[in-house]
Amino acid sequence: ILNVEQSPQSLHVQEGDSTNFTCSFPSSNFYALHWYRWETAKSPEALFVMTLNGDEKKKGRISATLNTKEGYSYLYIKGSQPEDSATYLCASFSGTYKYIFGTGTRLKVLA
Amino acid sequence: KAGVTQTPRYLIKTRGQQVTLSCSPISGHRSVSWYQQTPGQGLQFLFEYFSETQRNKGNFPGRFSGRQFSNSRSEMNVSTLELGDSALYLCASSLQTSQETQYFGPGTRLLVL
Q1: What is the pLDDT, as a whole number, of residue B56?
Q2: Regarding beta strands B108-112 and B10-13, do their DSSP bridges make them parallel or antiparallel, or are they unpaired?
Q3: pLDDT-based confidence at A93, cuts 50/70/90?
Q4: Which residues contact B8 (CB under 8 A, 6 or more apart)?
Q5: CB of A80 within 8 A of CB of A109?
Q6: What SS3 state is found at A83?
Q7: Measured between alpha carbons, how far is B59 from A97 in angstroms, rounded to an integer?
């Protein structure tokens, strides 16, 4: 694939539910994958920078995994809270395609 | 530490004009990247500067240019504005490379009439 694709586009979950999103990216000349959280009217906030195949990162209730051979990353949120509502962006950095962002997964957590 | 700052925050221009946007990175950060966000396209990479040199460039026409000063502050210029240039322009800074954690500024919202 030449683009960075994220799925689903949007998601509504109940408070306390766990959820996950997918980011698919070009696997050739891969350097790094970034995950960001972007709340309305704020700046994107970096969640994870992942570089190695098999990387797993965790920050509180949020974790991410990386598979560079097949070109995908998963972001998991355990026990979603209303404050987790945001758009979650991934961005792939490669030597070939430079820095490409996905269009994001918009998460709404209902109280 | 102060975060990334961008000025101005909002700007209205007319077609054919030019505009200069400014970005001050976090102290000690030497890499500054610029991005354009439009509703239909999402975030798109414009260019990255490091040590006053453009290190990477996205797929934008030559009307989009930038520069970086010795204090790492960066400016982005768009000449001959078109309606389609209306967007949110974000800059982000990182220590050495854009592959590291990037810290984003609040953005400049540009409206071209």
Answers
A1: 86
A2: parallel
A3: confident
A4: B21, B108
A5: yes
A6: helix
A7: 10
Q: How far is B18 from chain A (nearest CA, A)?
A: 25
What one-letter code names the amino acid at A78? K
Token pair 């354009």 in the structure block, residue: B36
Mean pLDDT of chain A: 92
- Partner B contacted by A100 (CB < 8 A): yes
Contact by Cβ (8 Å): A48, A32? no
B5 touching A (Cβ < 8 Å): no
* C-alpha–C-alpha distance, residues B33 and B57, integer Å: 9
Burial of A18 (0-12, 13-18, 19+ CB in 10 A): exposed
- Do B4 and A43 count as a contact with CB atoms less than 8 A apart? yes
What is the rounded CA–CA span in Å between residue B66 and residue B76? 4
Rounded to whole angstroms, how far apart are CA atoms A3 and B83?
26
Along chain B (113 residues), what's the average pLDDT of each consecutive run of 10 residues?
Answer: 91 97 96 91 90 90 96 96 96 87 94 97
